[in-house]
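Quick review question:
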């Protein structure tokens, strides 16, 4: 590979990056020996080219495929639009690469014909060559798209009248000859959950790997929701409008009353269950809760049982419909909705009769739509996730994987016992270019007094600064309270929720701004140069401990005889904090300061662990 790095320097004006070359050689060696490794690669190394070059060379040499999985669209766009085209020039050879999208990004002609009356969408369908939603340049209501998108539960496969114009399967065909497949983490787990979304591949590279655990947990979660159940039953038979696929079976004698009674009975049983859940959540004034904390568990269990009983009656009458002389297309469509409903009832039966092991059962209420969800979320996913490591070389990388100088946390959470562990130092001089200031305030970080102090501090601090500032919060409530208290003039105040994330970053780069954001602004944001000079961390980003999943995770770790704070809560917060602090220095010439207002970094014993994990050792106590 040395010749290609020389070419990058001599012909394309790249500076020599020892870290990039070191990382590429580590990955090349791992791939050649069918080994796996995890690499923390500091900002500025150029890690995407460091893994793409050995990946492309391997794919071409062995005629196999490499999958590169990322968490953010920004990184996917960088790989597709910048890095891979550059590598084609450096190698002087065409690289076969594709961005792979999930099937929900493609329109389904069958579902459009049945469910859509939107003239713009119908016209677009007639002219599109890809069926990809990203092509659409007009507004499409999300509920409309839900009814027309390609969906495995509604796909009739070879029996589809529009199979020659199935955009999803065309897209699948187009990736068969690719050497490099770019996916997101969600689609990757969809491949392992539902099988064969992707063709066989020899090497898997996971960038932004610090997000893997939470995404995997969400993907292996089971759930049902009031909205989806209502829509699915309505597609079978809607008693209010007297419509649905059942109308195609109207010629079948002697089943109308039996069928409508059974399907209406299932609908009522489900809605009664969701009503019980909704009432429990409203009474406790919470939006989510573990099922074992329901105040009316008896009614909940009774409704679960009623759903199972009602479905047995529905199953019997459904068999009569499927044995009738009605055309096969109608039967096929009915079977799709029936199967989806049956899967929901099987989940209900699991909740009713099976002991929950290594998972938490919980409920959730949407405060706007009042839709209810029931979820079963896995806790320790280290064993489940291991199947993605089987029979291939796996490379995981991110700028934030270690706690201090240790990979133990990420290794334990993701089951990486047989992975090599490597660290590649950033070329940036953090000690020189980043000062970290610690506050001496005496307020409880969870109090209103602390928020008032934060507002007072920011008003004084921002008056002294000429350049842009990120104020990173841990909740929307913080963003709202702080934004209302800011009195500074001469700044464009950008508040998360008022503009799209992309628009906020554009505005920040073009104006003297203060940006107040929460979760999504702690990572994946790249503002180089003088526009971003200051980052204010309002609180250490610990997750909310009374969230049902977090609460269960803490209990699970305690039951294993471990300290959940030191082995889980603190490491997770440190990785998030490293991401937030990492927004400041994005090039060798960048410099600025990080203000950590949360006094626990100074006052608590674990503060040293936090400071030892941050990139700069230039730590200053604020006066």
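Suggested answer, residue by residue:
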């Amino acid at each position: 590979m040395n010749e290609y790095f020389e070419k990058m320097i001599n012909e394309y004006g790249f500076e020599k990056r020892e870290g990039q070359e070191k990382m590429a050689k580590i990955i090349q060696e791992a791939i050649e020996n069918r080994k796996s490794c995890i690499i923390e690669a500091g900002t500025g190394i150029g890690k995407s080219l460091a893994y793409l070059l050995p990946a492309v060379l391997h794919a071409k040499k062995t005629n196999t495929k490499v999958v590169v999985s990322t968490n953010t669209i920004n990184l996917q766009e960088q790989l597709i639009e910048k890095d891979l085209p550059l590598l084609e020039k450096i190698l002087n050879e065409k690289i076969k690469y594709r961005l792979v999208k999930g099937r929900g990004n493609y329109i389904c002609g069958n579902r459009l014909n049945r469910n859509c009356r939107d003239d713009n969408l119908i016209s677009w369908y007639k002219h599109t060559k890809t069926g990809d939603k990203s092509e659409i340049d007009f507004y499409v209501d999300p509920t409309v798209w839900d009814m027309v998108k390609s969906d495995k539960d509604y796909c009739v496969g070879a029996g589809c009248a529009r199979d020659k114009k199935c955009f999803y399967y065309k897209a699948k065909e187009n990736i068969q000859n690719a050497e490099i497949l770019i996916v997101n983490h969600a689609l990757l787990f969809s491949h392992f959950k539902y099988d064969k979304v992707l063709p066989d591949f020899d090497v898997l590279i996971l960038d932004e790997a610090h997000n893997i655990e939470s995404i995997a947990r969400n993907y292996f979660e089971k759930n049902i929701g009031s909205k989806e159940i209502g829509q699915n039953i309505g597609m079978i038979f809607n008693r209010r409008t007297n419509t649905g696929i059942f109308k195609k079976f109207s010629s079948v004698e002697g089943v109308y009353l039996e069928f409508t009674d059974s399907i209406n009975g299932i609908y009522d049983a489900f809605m009664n269950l969701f009503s019980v859940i909704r009432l429990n959540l409203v009474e406790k004034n919470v939006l989510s809760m573990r099922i074992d904390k329901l105040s009316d568990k008896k009614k909940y269990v009774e409704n679960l049982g009623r759903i199972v009983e009602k479905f047995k009656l529905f199953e019997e009458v459904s068999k009569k419909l499927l044995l009738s002389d009605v055309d096969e297309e109608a039967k096929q469509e009915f079977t799709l909705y029936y199967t989806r409903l049956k899967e929901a009832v099987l989940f209900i039966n699991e909740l009713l009769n099976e002991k929950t092991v290594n998972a938490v059962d919980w409920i959730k209420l949407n405060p706007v739509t009042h839709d209810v969800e029931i979820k079963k979320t896995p806790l320790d996913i280290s064993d489940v996730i291991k199947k993605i490591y089987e029979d291939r070389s796996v490379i995981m990388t991110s700028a934030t994987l270690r706690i201090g100088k240790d990979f133990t946390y990420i290794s334990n959470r993701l089951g990486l016992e047989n992975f090599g562990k490597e660290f590649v130092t950033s070329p940036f001089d953090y000690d020189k270019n980043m000062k970290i200031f610690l506050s001496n305030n005496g307020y409880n970080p969870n109090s209103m007094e602390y928020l008032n102090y934060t507002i007072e501090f920011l008003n004084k601090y921002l008056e002294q600064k000429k350049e842009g500032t990120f104020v990173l919060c841990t909740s929307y409530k913080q963003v709202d309270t702080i934004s209302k208290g800011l009195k500074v003039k001469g700044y464009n105040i950008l508040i998360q929720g008022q503009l799209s994330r992309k628009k906020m970053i554009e505005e920040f780069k073009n104006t003297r701004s203060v940006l107040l954001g929460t979760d999504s602004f702690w990572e994946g944001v790249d503002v180089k140069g003088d526009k971003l000079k200051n980052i204010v961390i309002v609180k250490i980003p610990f997750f909310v401990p009374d969230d049902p999943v977090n609460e269960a995770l803490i209990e699970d770790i305690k039951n294993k005889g471990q300290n959940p704070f030191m082995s889980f809560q603190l490491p997770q917060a440190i990785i998030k904090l490293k991401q937030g602090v990492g927004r400041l220095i994005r090039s060798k010439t960048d410099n600025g300061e990080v203000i950590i207002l949360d006094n626990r970094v100074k006052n608590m014993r674990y503060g040293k662990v936090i400071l030892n994990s941050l990139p700069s050792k230039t730590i200053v106590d604020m006066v």
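Why it works: The mean pLDDT is 92. The first strand starts at residue 37 and ends at 41.
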